[in-house]
Specification:
The protein is an all-alpha fold and 402 residues long. The protein has one domain. 75% of the residues lie in helices and 0% in strands. The protein has helices spanning 7-26, 28-37, 43-70, 79-107, 113-142, 151-162, 184-203, 209-226, 234-249, 253-259, 262-278, 285-299, 311-318, 320-341, 349-398. The chain starts with 6 loop residues before the first helix and ends with a helix. Keywords: Acyltransferase, Membrane, Transferase, Transmembrane, Transmembrane helix. GO terms for molecular function: acyltransferase activity.
Length: 402
């Protein structure tokens, strides 16, 4: 097994897509969910999500291969396995900015900020909280349920985890490694969500210079508060600009029409392959510019010759948050923890490959279950909360003052 060989990444994608296709075939519930979710959505962007979330899984699997041989969690030495994770995260940030800035452009001052705020909380936390509980239980199980820190210190550590930081719990080294430290991206997402109304007032709801100045100060304050433990990096935040640019791109008729041509599809594929194979970084100006071009073409509706339109891929896109959040724990369990009890030597290429292949299939199954029974009920609960808050607001406004 050569760590620079992309063949096993192709194999992993094939297994994941096959698993997704089989679930769609066997489960009427999944079929109904996919049909319902397709209404009023950017289907090509949904398909892209499926590739991206699984790409991060492949990236962290490659990092685990390096760790098992060196004892250090380091970026894969090959560009492909490094970039398949980094570029995927950059494109995820573009998707976030594209969708929400696009809605802001459409709704203007009528944007429903209450629904936005509640929906984001109920989107992030219903799955994150059980995962956090799994991490805490795993840590104490490995430590034979002994306290190495005081209860107050552990409470502070858990509180930090609630806000997507990853301090070691009860002195367990590299606790964040149990989930591949994936929650670092959620801090960037949260900053974008909180800053969005302020950016809207600066660029869309212009009033006077004083409002603009206050909003810019508030954005800077948010930048400091959200990144108080680990500073938010400006070159990573730049990726959100790619999504904003794409929101304007798809609203330009000439660019929209060109983006749906075969030539545009070829350009998008070439650009994506160039970023994956020619660069060591994704969060730099030129690779982000290339990714913005490719993403704008995809957001315009190009399916890259059907690669983004397959139902199995769109289902992988639907469950992408579960895939992203759960894959690190699954990798730790399957490739680091499970072999200790069997025992298996995961430094052996064939053993590692077989367990990674099994993990590829399990990840899609687990992500499908967590989406159906945790994520979706959580999103539905968020909508109910919004309706209750609106009813309460209307009732209060109808009560006349004495």
């Amino acid at each position: 097994m050569d760590s620079s060989n992309p063949l096993w990444a192709v194999l992993a994608y094939g297994l994941a897509i096959m698993t997704s296709a089989l679930l769609l075939r066997w489960s009427p519930t999944i079929q109904r969910n996919l049909e319902h979710s397709a209404q009023g959505r950017y289907s090509s962007v949904d398909g892209l999500r499926g590739y991206l979330a699984f790409g991060v899984f492949i990236h962290h699997t490659a990092i685990t291969w390096v760790f098992l041989h060196t004892g250090a969690f380091e970026m894969p030495s090959t560009r492909f396995y490094a970039q398949i994770g980094l570029a995927s995260v950059a494109l995820f940030f573009m998707i976030t900015a594209f969708l929400f800035w696009g809605r802001l452009l459409e709704k203007g001052r009528e944007y429903d900020w209450l629904a936005f705020a509640v929906s984001r909380v109920f989107r992030l936390y219903p799955l994150y909280l059980p995962l956090m509980l799994l991490v805490i239980v795993s840590v104490f199980y490995i430590q034979d349920w002994t306290l190495k820190d005081t209860p107050l210190e552990i409470a502070g550590q858990i509180l930090a985890w609630l806000f997507f930081d990853r301090p070691d719990i009860n002195q367990f080294p590299q606790t964040g490694g149990l989930i591949a430290n994936v929650t670092w991206t959620l801090s960037y997402e949260v900053f974008f969500y909180m800053a969005l109304p302020l950016f809207g007032m600066v660029f869309l709801y212009r009033s006077d210079w004083r409002q603009t100045a206050l909003c810019l100060i508030a954005i800077y304050a948010l930048y400091q508060v959200v990144g108080w433990e680990h500073s938010l990096k400006k070159h990573i935040l730049m990726s959100f600009l790619g999504g904003v640019a794409a929101a304007y791109w798809v609203r330009t008729p000439r660019l929209l029409a060109w983006s749906r041509t075969p030539v545009a599809g070829v350009i998008a594929l070439v650009v994506l392959m160039a970023v994956l194979t020619l660069f060591r970084k994704s969060f730099a100006f030129f690779p982000l510019l290339l990714l913005t071009l490719a993403f704008s073409i995809i957001a315009s509706g190009h399916t890259l010759f059907g690669a983004l339109a397959k139902r199995s891929i769109r289902w992988m896109g639907e469950i992408s948050y579960s895939t992203y959040l759960l894959h690190g724990f699954l990798i730790w369990l399957m490739l680091q923890r499970l072999p200790l009890g069997l025992p298996l030597d995961t430094r052996e290429p064939l053993v590692f490959l077989l367990l990674a292949a099994l993990s590829s299939c399990l990840l899609i199954v687990l992500s499908s279950l967590s989406f159906l029974y945790i994520e979706k009920p959580g999103m539905a609960a968020g909508k109910r909360v919004v309706r209750r808050l609106r009813r309460r607001t209307r009732t209060t406004s109808q009560v006349e003052p004495e």
